[in-house]
Amino acid sequence: MKTKTKLTLGVGLLFLLIVLLSVISIWYVNALKKDTENILVANYKTLAYSRQMLIALDDIPERAGSLDTFRSNLEKQLANLTEPGEGEATNKLKAHFNELIRDSGKNDAYYKLIRQDIGEIMRLNMNAIARKSDAASLTAENANIWIGTTGALCFIIAFTLLINLPGNIANPIRELTNSIREITAHNYHQRVHFESNNEFGELAHSFNIMAEKLEEYAGSNLSRLLMEKKRIETLINNMHDPVIGLDENQVVIFTNNEALQIVGFKKEEVIGKKIIELALYNDLLRLLAKDLNLQETKPTKKEPIKIFADGKESFFEKEHIPINIVPTGETRPQFIGHVIMLKNITPFRELDLAKTNFIATVSHELKTPISSIKMSLELLNNKLTGSLNNEQQQLVAGIAEDSNRLLRITGELLNMSQVETGNIQLNLRQSKPEEILHYALSAVQTAADHKMIHFDLQVEDPLPNVKVDPEKTAWVLTNFLSNAIRYSPEQGTIIISIRLEAKVLRFSVKDNGRGIDERYTQRIFERYFQIPGSNRSGSGLGLAISKEFIEAQGGEIGVESALGIGSTFYFSFPV
């Protein structure tokens, strides 16, 4: 039997029984109402009239108005004759009352007869009340029987539906749900077995057909290929950087939402089209396709591209990555396409600008109070303002030394801000390499002590002077040492070397950290670049600024590193 038919029969029968129960209840309630009304309207009124006539009969000898009261109630009784024999008794009462009136109420025999007549009327009505009460009780008993029977049937049917119906519906649904979960988990051997011929049986049959087709589909190579393709597309689409993939014929084969958003195209307008053709209608794609060399074997890096994205002016770094594979059975790689990636460097440029402005502002603001302190120290040292004792002179000397140090630091900050804005101001002079080293070591000694790192100094003696800006050179060496401390393990050793090689003075800092992949050794001196997976606490500008400092002085800067053997950063100047 169909589930719909079961529901219709069960709920329909329950509905009919409820209607029947309602009709029976209403019918018996009306019957009880009629029986009660018959007692109240007919018999109760007669008893009331009889009582009033008895009271008036007793007062006839004493009160003149008692006859009128008796006559009035007698007339009402004559109009309310409802029981068998009640009319005859009432007529006899009327005849005896008339005889009493003619006798002027002096014959006691008529009083006795009238009381007997009234008693007979009351007896007839009392018997009627008892009879009608029995009939009402019988009606109530029948009502209880019928209502109880119908209610019991309703309860049995409702209880049967409550016990069987949820299970008949929920159990197949639960089994089907579990089977769907198995199918979702790629268990395509799952089947549903419903022996009934209802809707669930039809659903199970359709489900089993679907599972069988999915099992056949999953067993094919096509499904695995499509699954891998879907996985790669999802990974690419979830990347936060714009990515465009090209085949060997410069046809766009994939792109993510980030790339579509900045180029202003829909996916169906890009996929399957040559990037050169798309570049005819799009300035950004024209810039990406400019000088595109699909036969390159190494990634290329261009200058940052300015793009209006995310509601503001943004900067992206373009990178071309050629894709080469070695076909099965061959040894030579084959070029199959190219990937264009745009790395959003806007946050780094904003951080760079904010840092530059902050450094310039703070350095400028610090110079005024420092100069004021130095002027106050000069006034204190002037004997015209008063003499100082030895302790005061020592304090003034200490303040003067700290003021000079702060003034040098603010000067360095201003110089760094000038470098970052492209306006480098150099103060070249013959400098001692030992003094540059001493300055850098004093700047990082606290950080080295915190990690219990030892410095191994390998400094040749004697060393010639070199014509450099000592403050900027010391800043670069300090930056090298800070990076070496950051990436060295605790209680490690950092080797600092200064030696003369073929009329070139070379400074080098070697750490025993994890090293740098050779793919990135030429890029770490670029602005904003950070090695993937490294500690990204900085902005990626330190090494770029160092490179500008050294090259502005005519020197050379570089790094020698490999994974697992540490890194050696160096710079050199001609002597």
Automatic annotation (TrEMBL):
<dbReference type="InterPro" id="IPR036890">
    <property type="entry name" value="HATPase_C_sf"/>
</dbReference>
<dbReference type="InterPro" id="IPR036097">
    <property type="entry name" value="HisK_dim/P_sf"/>
</dbReference>
<dbReference type="Pfam" id="PF00989">
    <property type="entry name" value="PAS"/>
</dbReference>
<dbReference type="Pfam" id="PF00672">
    <property type="entry name" value="HAMP"/>
</dbReference>
<dbReference type="InterPro" id="IPR005467">
    <property type="entry name" value="His_kinase_dom"/>
</dbReference>
<keyword id="KW-0067">ATP-binding</keyword>
<dbReference type="InterPro" id="IPR035965">
    <property type="entry name" value="PAS-like_dom_sf"/>
</dbReference>
<dbReference type="GO" id="GO:0005524">
    <property type="term" value="F:ATP binding"/>
</dbReference>
<dbReference type="InterPro" id="IPR050351">
    <property type="entry name" value="BphY/WalK/GraS-like"/>
</dbReference>
<feature type="transmembrane region" description="Helical">
    <location>
        <begin position="7"/>
        <end position="29"/>
    </location>
</feature>
<protein>
    <recommendedName>
        <fullName>histidine kinase</fullName>
        <ecNumber>2.7.13.3</ecNumber>
    </recommendedName>
</protein>
<feature type="domain" description="Histidine kinase">
    <location>
        <begin position="361"/>
        <end position="575"/>
    </location>
</feature>
<keyword id="KW-0472">Membrane</keyword>
<dbReference type="Pfam" id="PF00512">
    <property type="entry name" value="HisKA"/>
</dbReference>
<dbReference type="InterPro" id="IPR000014">
    <property type="entry name" value="PAS"/>
</dbReference>
<feature type="domain" description="PAS">
    <location>
        <begin position="228"/>
        <end position="276"/>
    </location>
</feature>
<keyword id="KW-0418">Kinase</keyword>
<keyword id="KW-1133">Transmembrane helix</keyword>
<dbReference type="InterPro" id="IPR003661">
    <property type="entry name" value="HisK_dim/P_dom"/>
</dbReference>
<keyword id="KW-0808">Transferase</keyword>
<dbReference type="InterPro" id="IPR004358">
    <property type="entry name" value="Sig_transdc_His_kin-like_C"/>
</dbReference>
<keyword id="KW-0597">Phosphoprotein</keyword>
<dbReference type="InterPro" id="IPR013767">
    <property type="entry name" value="PAS_fold"/>
</dbReference>
<keyword id="KW-0902">Two-component regulatory system</keyword>
<dbReference type="InterPro" id="IPR003594">
    <property type="entry name" value="HATPase_dom"/>
</dbReference>
<keyword id="KW-0812">Transmembrane</keyword>
<keyword id="KW-0547">Nucleotide-binding</keyword>
<dbReference type="InterPro" id="IPR003660">
    <property type="entry name" value="HAMP_dom"/>
</dbReference>
<feature type="domain" description="HAMP">
    <location>
        <begin position="167"/>
        <end position="219"/>
    </location>
</feature>
<dbReference type="Pfam" id="PF02518">
    <property type="entry name" value="HATPase_c"/>
</dbReference>
